[in-house]
Amino acid sequence: MKTKDIIKKLDFKKMGGLIPAITQEVETNKILMLGFMNEEALEETLEKGKVTYFSRTRGKLWTKGETSGNFQLLKEIFLDCDNDTLLLKVIQTGSVCHTGNKTCFYKKIF
What is the maximum alpha-carbon separation in the chain? Predict the structure, then answer.
């Protein structure tokens, strides 16, 4: 499927141009992180094969691993039933979290 056809399926309007992107390790199914994408981030991800998010803090595109070297190599993308959330299946190189953890979801609260 072409990049433009994929983007047409998504509802970027609900969250002001952004959609949540849940990232999961393809081999273990471990949830790694949650990021946000705009159309440009998704286009870049599909073109380069490395996951790119829109950083709400920085206000710009951010390829995971661009400073740490811990890239997310895209393997598959799934779309939820409302067309407003993505599930990215990736091969993760190195740790995900800025704390050095393999996943951002390491703080069990219940």
Answer: 42
Please indicate, yes or no, whether the overall pTM of this predicted structure exceeds 0.70.
yes
Q: Where are the domains of the chain?
A: 3-92
Which band of pLDDT confidence, cut at 50, 70 and 90, is reported for residue 1?
low
Domain 3-92 annotated CATH 3.10.20.810 = yes
Q: How far is CA 72 from CA 14, 32, 81, 83, in A?
A: 26, 10, 24, 23
Beta bridge partners of 25: 90
Query: For residues 86 and 37, is the Cβ–Cβ distance under 8 A?
Result: yes
- Distance (Å, whole) CA 103 – CA 24: 9
Q: Where are the beta strands (DSSP E) in the chain?
A: 19-25, 31-37, 52-55, 60-63, 72-79, 86-92
24-83 pLDDT, tens digit per residue, is 999 999 999 999 999 999 999 999 999 999 999 999 999 999 999 999 999 999 999 999
